[in-house]
Amino acid sequence: MASSNGMSNGTQNGRLGPLQHPATKLRNMVESSEGVIVAPGVYDGFSARIALEVGFDCLYMTGAGTCAAKLGQPDLGFATLNDMRENAEIIANLDASIPLIADADTGYGGPNMVARTIAQYHRSNVAGLHIEDQIQTKRCGHLGGKQVVEEEVFVTRITAAVQARKRIGSDMVIIARTDALQTHNFDEAIKRLKAAYAAGADVAFLEGLTSREEARIACQQLAPMPVLLNMVEHGATPSITPQEAQELGFKIIIFPFAAIAPAYEAIKNVFVQLKQTGKTGLDSSFTPKKLFTIVGLKEATAIDVSAGGALYNGV
Ligand SMILES: C[C@](O)(C(=O)O)[C@H](CC(=O)O)C(=O)O
Fold first, then answer.
1. Could you say which of 177, 179, 197, 219 is catalytic?
2. Helices H / strands E in the chain, number of each
3. How many angstroms does the Cα of residue 128 sit away from the middle of ligand 1?
4. Predicted confidence (pLDDT) per residue in 250-268, tens digit
């Protein structure tokens, strides 16, 4: 598939080949019989760089983390399509060979807005997204008091996404999320996800699973639809490892808070120390050059040099 942004990631016969859209890669990963796809939650370019450095095969852009990091707001429907798309585009293009699954909340409106979301995420090189059945003024799935739209409205959102994908020739992996386990019951959540599958969604996301047994039965009842596990620690779902998730029947596991929770602890500790002692106590190995190396200094220098530049000599 042709790249929408002109980037390349492969060599064929010594020449750079066209970039395969990351959605095609994620689709192949979801369809392959190989193990569970593990995606750490990232919320900006920096946390994404760290996940890439560690070597994950897939990344997840958390909406909760995006709201918190970019807007300084709770996950209560503050983020707009523009906020989310902009963040996703930055993350997805740091290394377009590693697919990004991005939160797309409710799809941000009616069928036309859902279609717009699909098109914008596709052009931003996002590989997969999830669209849920909460009302527009949504909240984090692990908070109480959620409300969901009627199943017909949810199916309309998914149908709009599937039709938009077809219209623009995208391979976007559409993940249907239901929050109906809390508002209704398990059977209603399964019914909604099956309806989403019938409408063309690729992957099921049953939000807020409360036990391993429930998780296992969900995977069994939803088969052959691949299922995503949302591993929010200390929320509604017990801690489940990728290996356990695979045994339970999941195809994807996301860890939304894997970056933002430790970032908070680390930043706060240093700020408290700075306020109390006037010193940050930062490790002496963390030079400015180290920071810039983490975020692509070598690659930037190589591009400049190969174009005949000498901008970064002596850096
Ligand atoms: C997966 C999620 O949509 C996210 O934004 O990362 C959140 C995570 C959270 O806020 O606990 C969700 O589960 O609603």
1. 177
2. 13, 10
3. 15
4. 999 999 999 999 999 999 9
Same domain assignment for residues 179 and 281:
no
**DSSP 8-class letter at 34:** S
Alpha-carbon distance of 20 to 99, in angstroms, equals 11
pLDDT digits (tens, 9 = 90+) for 34-67: 899 999 999 999 999 999 999 999 999 999 999 9
269 shares a domain with 256: no
Shared domain check, 281 and 251: no
Print the domain residue range for 150.
21-260
- Nearest atom, ligand 1, residue 256 CA: 6
ipTM rounded to 2 decimals = 0.96
Active site residue 105: yes
Same domain, 88 and 231: yes
User: Choosing from 43, 140, 165, 179, which is the catalytic residue?
Assistant: 140
Report whether residue 40 contacts ligand 1, using a CB cutoff of 6 Å.
Answer: no
Whether residue 298 sits in one domain with residue 220: no
Closest to 226 (Cα-Cα) out of 25, 58, 57, 29: 29
